[in-house]
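Interim report, section 4.2 (structural modelling).
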Amino acid sequence: MKRLFCVVLGIFLLTGCAKKPEEQNTITFWHWMTDRQKAFEELAKKYEEQTGIKVKVDLYAPSDAYTQRIIASAQAKVLPDIYGILDKKEIFASFIDSGFVADLTAEFAKDNSEWEKAIFPKAIDVNRFTEGNIYKVKPGIYGVPIDVTNIQMLYNKKLLEKAGIKKAPKTFDEFLAAIEALKRVGITGMVSGWGELWMLDCFASNYAFNIMGEDKIMATYRGEVPYTDPDWIKVFNVFKTLREKGAFIDGIVTKLNKYSEQDFALERAAFSFNGSWCVNVYKDMNPNLQYGAMLPPAIESTFPLKIWGGAGSSFVVNNNSSRKDKAIAFLKWVTAKEQQAYLAQETKNLPSNRQALSSIPEILSDFAGVMDQTTHPTIWSHNENPLVAERYIKGIQSIIIGEKTPEQVAKEVQEIKEKELKKLRKE
Amino acid sequence: MSTNPATARRNLLFKDNFESFAFILPAVIIFSVFYIYPFFETFALSMQKWNGISLHRTFIWFNNFIDLKDDKIWWNALGHAGYVTFIALTLQNALAFALALACDREIRMKRFYRVVFFLPPVLSEVVVGLIWQWILYAGKQDGQHIGLLNHFLDKTGFSHLIHSWLSDPDTALTCIAVVHSWKGFGWGFIILLAGLQTIDRQLYEAAKVDGAGSWRVLRNVTIPMMIPVIFDVIVLTILGSMQVFVLIISLLGNGLGDHTDVPVTRIFSAMTGTNQFGYACAQGVTFGLILIFVSFTFKKLSTKLKQA
Amino acid sequence: MGINRYQVYKFFKLTFIQIFLMSVAVTCLFPLFWMVRSAFMTNDTIFTDKSFIPKIIQLGNFAQAWTDGNFGVYFLNSIIYTASVVTGIVIVSSLAAYAFSRLNFPGKNFFFYMFVAAMMIPLPGSFVPLFVLMNKLGLVNTRIGYILCMINVGLSLSIFLLKTFFDKMPADLEDAARIDGCGKLGIWWYVALPLAQPAIAVIVIFNSLNVWNEYILASLLLNDNSKMPLQKGLMVFQGAHSVDYPILMAGLTIAALPIILIYLVMQKHIIKGLSSGAIVG
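Predicted structure of the assembly:
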């Protein structure tokens, strides 16, 4: 037994320590999307046939494991040729700062900006650092979006009809009336995966844009407008109103998005706040589901309600790689029309290449149609301090479960905000 | 070469010590490389301000620990883990001990039970999460409760108890603790069973001859003999329950406000959520020291019990 | 008369114990039953068919799961990892635990408490220095690197548990062996290990489960699919079939089987250990 063990160990040691010379014709590509591994591998095969360059597609999932791997590899300076950054803009900036990410601005500008023009501007913006950005990163484009998404309100046509509602509600009051009508026939109003806090953040942000506009939100993040401002109270009150009207499905605050998707697919709720990826999910769970997509109903008319959207997943090129040019060439190829159409077909995501739009399913074009009304934290000039953001979002949870009032939450968030501002000034 | 008997004895002792030390040498080597070294590096990180990526790290002495001292959410989270641990220590371990005792006797179908009781620890987290989601689900469809528990309460006439189990601050943590105990009692069961098996049967016979009832045998023979093993199970339960978090994520996602935060979820949210890598390390080190303190207190207690 | 009453009492007591055991057993069996049952269903019926035994039974899910998840390679890897890590841990930890329990050498307590303390401290950031170190040693993306790390993971706890059992063991047999001229290593191998069978069985089960389900460290240290353990396959599989419950359940069932098998084999040793304990007394 012992001898066998030694032999086994010895074999591993031998095979493990033999170092291979660095391959110039193989580029490595790391991602975290389990549902796209197959499609990526297919593309890699095709690419090798066409160019002779091998692409090694490595999947690290779930995203926590991926993030750990990226952080560790960055510190050991063994990042792959192509990888994605799943973090806030601030961390993206940190990657660039540390020289881990190649500046792609010149590549995008080549041939009369051919590459840049092909792609949804919003998706490019997510990877762009503008002039005078607060992270002090050299302005330019640092990443390549391979698909786009946005997050909207979905409605079940059959259930709305049952409640006698002919048209999807446009305003917030109409929405509340619809909820009331649905309740009368025993149908739950709305579901969403708010156990995943960013989805809740997203919904709140939609209404913040609608109520006070982008400038005032940015001013709040800079510390010039307090969270106790009436407009912010109004944002918090959206949740209070919806709660009081009984709009939410039971347990919405701790619902994981996969269960929210199950609820909507099995017609347990009439509305669902969810992203464009849901099309694929609903199709598998309930092929007969009759639904449409709409913007969350606006509450005010001064400012437009903006939804979150932009790049679904973006990839960057390792600046220290000796195969940098090959990596860029591959990304260019992946975002070309033909490959984008293939990805859209296989993974049911919106392509980032606008020319590939013609080949997508109908319901997806509902999502694609509102790309102009999207925004995303990564394109804002400022972002909230993460500690304040955490308090803010958990405060909204407390409002939904009826534990705190909007005023209480506003006060608590503002307290943290001031503490963090003080810290900032000291530095 | 001197043949001085004192030197010879010393040489012998040295050889003996060295031989004994060789027994722990493989463990110490592996441990030093893969644990001690990363430990000191992590400890060094806990005194730095670092976002996890940047090449600049600022050394800030014990400031992370000072911040942690005033972090109310952190101490609350510790309290939550303590609550889960308390339930696990009582409910889970009492159950495990009772089941191990029952399976140690001559009882029908004990082979079957021995296998079945260890199924929950074997099951994947995915299955456990799905099953308990289904049991604890809140909400109705076509007038019927979807969740098994609510459905059951409805049918048995306890409809006033129907609840959003996982999104009510009053019940969420208790649900976590109960599911955790259910998933974990199998461990206590097999360790205790293994311990019971090493008790000499003749001791039982002797006690019975002396006319002791089964309760007295339990008190005077079984439990005293089992104290070291029980202590092990207690320490393992504390470790397992204080560090609970996969279950929380699979049942509640990012959690219910601050009500279901535990130290490990706080550490993760500091590490990748708010990018305070150094602070996360400080939390880990502090948390470890607290666990060491608690476990060694129990250790003291068990030695005292043994003497008594 | 007294005997009669005693028998009645005993009967009720046993019935009560049986009911208690049965009800716990049902809660343990239910998820497993549900998992297996779902694995035989079709995606159309899984949400609607609530009957105990599904109306439409589909057997192909298992085969599809096996090929779709590319489980073959992953399965083999997991078996290699589990076997090597568990063997390693049993040898290394039983040597150390035996020394901590029975032998004397300077610094004994220091080292023991070092191991115990290590069990307690979760090191959230340690994956960064660990990876940097492994990279320097050339152990990233090697099986041996992963195996050594996993041995380290299970080491403290195994030493801790084994020491308790060695402490409990009567020393007479070892003394006898020593008189017969057995060296320390011989006593460990011929006397201590066989006697500690129940505890070792526990260690084997514990570490097998740990290695079999481990995934985070594997994805930190390994790159190639050809070296990844089963959980990686399962993870990919879960993503690709997140809404296809029957296939997912079939995959999970396949993944759970080996561990249940290991437990079945090992639990016999837990029991056998000292029922042949005549040698001890």
